Amino acid sequence: MLYRRFGRTELEMPVFSCGGMRYQYKWQDVPQSEIPRNNQENLEATIRRSLEVGINHIETARGYGTSEVQLGKILPKFPRTKLIVQTKVNPEADAKEFERNLEKSLQNLRLDYIDLLGLHGINNRETLDECIRPGGCLDVARKLQAQGKVKFIGFSTHGSTDIIIEAINTNQFDYVNLHWYYINQNNWAAIEAATRHDMGVFIISPSDKGGRLYEPSQKLVNLCAPLSPMVFNDLFCLSHPEVHTLSLGASKPQDFDEHLKTLELLDNASEILPLILASLEEEAIASLGEDWVKTWNVNLPSYEETPGNVNIPVILWLRNLAIAYDMTEYAKMRYNLLGNAGDWFPGNKADQVDKLNLQQCLIRSPHADKIPHLLTQAHQMLGGETVKRLSQK
């Protein structure tokens, strides 16, 4: 395993982390007696495999249902100083409710302290304010930090880059969990801001939200050869030293195997990546046209600025992926979350575009005339049954 300094925490962080949202029994809290033995055994085998390969960062959240309780049966069996344990707790308008949830996390994990506490889901200014205002969630976290129950405090986010940078620039956090990978590099400015503040940088779900790379299209497989799409994406992310760790979201012990192939390639990333990057870009241009590929996202309005809260940037991005790389199943899954995922994936689908006047909000786009038609096309291509976030199932 390779390790990187996790910003000002000074923790030696493995470049892969064992994310804890896919091996638990349920997304809701249930009594421990209801957790099937085979599920618990699989989780424990996954943790043991993680530690065997040097991945000692175990990451979970209060919102991941039975994950914390199930980890609480295995983590205390290992030397505490050998583990880096992170959990995340959603901000609340009532800081006392946040404190109760945080204490519940500690109780579930059966640990005297957690190394990394994340304020889970600073996705807009409202949740940021709930954290940083006097008497808010951050003050509660600081109190538990002073008691030795929490070592370092960070935040996770699915918010816009502007919101993430605003949170980073408060200089109140030691690390950030955010999205950034090959198919979505929008948050690079936030990573640069985190680097300036010497914060740890943890990449959320690069293999799932980064393209369902465990089930890649054949076209993507061909374009990423000789690497698998998963290893290519890992290598792309970790070739940037500003990135410290990638969450693997393992569901079983074997899920680490493909990722581990990345480690021996890192020293030669500058030789390996350019050919694959060129191949991907050439295919995008061949499929979508050079002008579109280079300018499609110029001066697009945010969903808040768009009639009907249609999320134009996300919809066009998903259309691009479906057409250029045959990533249709991924695009459908993400598209059908729109309108149903709150501030975790905000904005609406394009099903009502023909009833909306988008002329004013698109006035600065070089593609204003054709975007309404492309949105309609995207809905026809990707529309389907409403998709729920995992935690809503």
Based on the model shown, name its key terms.
393 residues, alpha/beta, TIM Barrel, 8-stranded parallel beta barrel, two-stranded antiparallel ribbon, 15 helices, 10 strands, 39% helix, Aldo/keto reductase, oxidoreductase activity
Q: Please write the string of helix (H) and strand (E) elements.
A: EEEHEHEHEHHEHEHEHHEHHHHHH
Q: Specify the biggest β-sheet.
A: 8 strands, parallel, barrel
Radius of gyration computed on alpha carbons: 21 Å
- CATH fold naming of the largest domain: TIM Barrel
Instruction: Quickly count the domains.
Output: 2
Report strand order across the widest sheet: 3-4-5-6-7-8-9-10
What is the overall pLDDT average? 95
Output the CATH homologous superfamily of the largest domain.
NADP-dependent oxidoreductase domain
Number of helical stretches of at least 4 residues: 15
Cα(first) to Cα(last) distance is 35 Å
| DSSP strand content | 5-15%
- Secondary-structure-derived class: alpha/beta
Helix content: 25-40%
Instruction: Using the alpha-carbon principal axes, give the shape.
Output: globular
Assign the CATH class of the largest domain. Answer: Alpha Beta
Unreliable residue stretches: none
The CATH architecture of the largest domain: Alpha-Beta Barrel
How would you describe this structure to a colleague?
With about 400 residues, the protein is an alpha/beta fold. It folds into two domains: about 5-270, Alpha-Beta Barrel (TIM Barrel); about 290-390, no CATH class. Helices cover about 40% and strands about 10% of the residues. It has 15 helices and ten strands. The strands form two sheets. It has an eight-stranded parallel barrel with strand order 3-4-5-6-7-8-9-10, surrounded by four helices. It has a two-stranded antiparallel sheet with strand order 1-2. Strand 3, helix 1 (about 35-50) and strand 4 form a beta-alpha-beta unit. Helix 13 runs antiparallel to helix 14 (about 330-335) and helix 13 crosses helix 15 (about 370-380). The longest helix is centred in the last third of the chain and has 20 residues, at about 270-290. The two termini are about 35 Å apart. The relative contact order is 0.10. The model has no long low-confidence stretch (mean pLDDT about 95). InterPro entries: AKR, AKR2_Oxidoreductase, NAD(P)_OxRdtase_dom_sf, NADP_OxRdtase_dom. This is Aldo/keto reductase. It comes from Hassallia byssoidea VB512170.
